[in-house]
């Protein structure tokens, strides 16, 4: 007799809820960076994982990564300090890569904290909590096995309209100790389609929530000619219906959001399966306090484990005194992530309150190193970054051209590299794409045929004429060519 699973609601399952997700796009300019490029003894290769030079800073970041992994780093802060375009943001991205997707990494830019709707300390707090992970081990009642049958049973649409509706879904799962035929609620069908489950996949369905998780492809199919890279897994041991330990990685912010409008159960664990689209419900200090209490209890009971991640604040000179005071207090709390700051400023005045735009220039604070208050600076481990040599710039330009899939003639790349040394690395990297577009112009037919068009010195020069660098732009302005 087919067992029935009653499903009330299908929530989003596990996956990448560690707060990175939608924020990834910003890192496109660093897509060639795949890690810090360190050897197993901790020393840096000159050119590895997309990273060139900046050896000492990479090694220092490697130590930071180790400290984070050993959980010796929570509540501390690191400052990456160096001139523009010396790879500070790239280093932070590399740290994120090294830590892997299970450790939360929350990148923000100092100026993001200023918004008319949200208080800046509130925004800081939210990002702090995005950077603190919780690994929860939960024993769940599941149905797990290889899918050997997947049949939606249709019914006439009761409203008589065009089309049919799905009455229920028949699914047969095979495990080592037998098979089970389940008749499921149609809402699960959507979840199954979302996970792209096909025959021969190994999946599990949570009995209480109806959440579906695809584990991988059954290794019985491993010999089959398959173009996609797929993960093959053995047929699950034991019965189809069983208790299974499920590990979920969430951030404290995920929990705040899920609990801001409680649905169903009262405790955090029952909320785990219900992490849905972020709702715009107010997260209060009181709610956070309650969540902390529950989280601490689960940690004490050994059900959950705290995973302090990284809060990366780029352009830290944008923060004002209030933010810094808040930061030092937050770093001292028992649940805190590692904070990595970056700044390309030397001695500048500390930003004063931005709450009223009219007072932005009325700075009565003395200049401070990196725009960081002198009582906060000593808390930081400072990692300096240095300017690149022409050789290093040439290597970076080459890596970037390859990453953007642009075909350059060697002389073309040499010219870009030369500009990188003369003007700035950033300018050189920005010229790559325009130069390749210039090369494409006027070669419509060839380009349409899909012939690779190589970019030479001429095209680079043309792009250089079209797009000014900062220095030349200032020159044009002050010579009055752009009008008064
Ligand atoms: N050592 C390196 N190896 C490879 N690519 C690098 C290296 N350093 C910088 N880059 C690349 O050069 C560009 C500029 O570097 P990045 O944005 O990290 O500089 P930054 O120090 O953060 O500058 P700013 O102070 O202006 O923010 C990025 O595309 C980055 O990925
Ligand atoms: Mg930067």
Automatic annotation (TrEMBL):
Record localization: Nucleus
The keyword DNA repair is annotated on this UniProt entry: yes
One of the record's GO molecular function terms: hydrolase activity
Domain named AAA+ ATPase: residues: 74-400
E.C. number: 3.6.4.12
Name by which UniProt lists this protein: RuvB-like helicase
The keyword Nucleus is assigned to this record: yes
Alphabetical keyword list: Activator, ATP-binding, Chromatin regulator, DNA damage, DNA repair, Helicase, Hydrolase, Nucleotide-binding, Nucleus, Transcription, Transcription regulation
Organism: Lineolata rhizophorae
Source superkingdom: Eukaryota
GO biological process: chromatin organization; DNA repair
Family as reported in the entry's similarity comment: Belongs to the RuvB family.
Matches recorded under SMART domains: AAA
